[in-house]
Amino acid sequence: MTSATATRRPGDLRNYALVTAAYWADTIADGAIRLLVLFFFYEQGYTPLQLATVFVFYEVFGIVTNLVGGFLAARFGLTTTLIAGLLTQTAALLMLGLAPDAWLVVGYVMAAQALSGIAKDLTKMSSKSAVKLVAGDRPGALYRWVAILTGSKNALKGVGFFLGGLLLSVTSFQTSMLLLAALVFGTLLATVPFMTGSLGRADAGAKFRHMFSNDRAVNLLAAARIFLFASRDVWFVVGLPVFLRTVLGWTFWQVGTFMAVWVIGYGIVQASAPRLIRARGTAKGAPDGGVAARLAFALAVLPAGIAIALGAGLDPTAVLVGGLIVFGVIFALNSAVHSYLILAYADGDKVAMNVGFYYMANAGGRLVGTILSGVLYQWQGLEACLWASAVFVLVAGGISLLLPRR
């Protein structure tokens, strides 16, 4: 193989560490923004469906960004997309931080959320694609590297939820956004100037049509990813936080802390996936499609069980906390396996485009889950969201049965 992914260059590890640091900072800001926006509009009297609408552009532009961003990364290199992501996130935060109160209506915040979605996916794609430059085509090493990156990212997103709840408790919405803007822009200044050369090979011959994969395994994994992430966001984005706040009477601080702890734990499990899942009979212990399918079918039991328990009148606090902890463990393992498989399936010469296509599907799943989270919660409450989650996971498992077993 002649691609840059086949042989790791000396500067790749250094650049990868800097990209990852930038990605971590953006991830913290992204988690904080989500909780701040959700509860700011909840306090303004918005319904669950209206709250879901605020995040629609965030997910829609995530789809577009992964599609176009993968092409741009292949054409101009990953450093370019990283810088663009951090600058765009800073702009989105300043839009919200400097806006007078009269401007903070749904349309304006949806536009800011669109920029935030673009920024998050540009930085994520840059860092995820960079893993392949470090690990190359060694399955065991690739599995460990991507598990550590994905797990740390989700743990830090949990820190972002915690930070968002804290900021909303001690200062204003606009001040919170300005503090987060300083974090993101400061990280850009602290990382990008120290990168040497370029991260990844810029390919002037890359064509946009190459974004759409011809690889059956990549396409099947992307389809499974849509339903896997819809199964999480259909209860996580609107249903759960609103239920905790309105039905159980939790404070912003309590809701933010619970969601933070859940996501941090989820990230720790993801990072530990290579030790927790020792796949026998596969390439150097790395998982295959069969592992993804089995985890999905096991996961489907959890939201259905939680919904049944809530319907039976059991203590909702114990049911939700206990059930969602187990859900988080199995979901984290499933997501870690997916994150490894896309890089294992990716064509070395088109890794950024394959990853961009895959995370476009990921964003599509989040979009479906986000909209349905508001619609179903407003219609029939949290139980409806959980039943939808169970159905989505079963579909993801069915698709995963078609993935390669080697």
From TrEMBL:
The chain crosses the membrane at residues 21-42, 48-69, 76-96, 102-119, 154-173, 179-199, 220-244, 250-269, 290-312, 318-345, 357-380, 386-403. The keyword Repeat does not apply. InterPro entries: MFS (IPR011701), MFS_ArsJ (IPR047769), MFS_trans_sf (IPR036259). One of its GO terms (molecular function) is transmembrane transporter activity. Keywords: Membrane, Transmembrane, Transmembrane helix. Gene3D superfamilies: MFS general substrate transporter like domains. Pfam families: MFS_1. The keyword Membrane applies. PANTHER family: MAJOR FACILITATOR SUPERFAMILY DOMAIN, GENERAL SUBSTRATE TRANSPORTER, MAJOR FACILITATOR SUPERFAMILY MFS_1. This is Unannotated protein. It comes from freshwater metagenome.
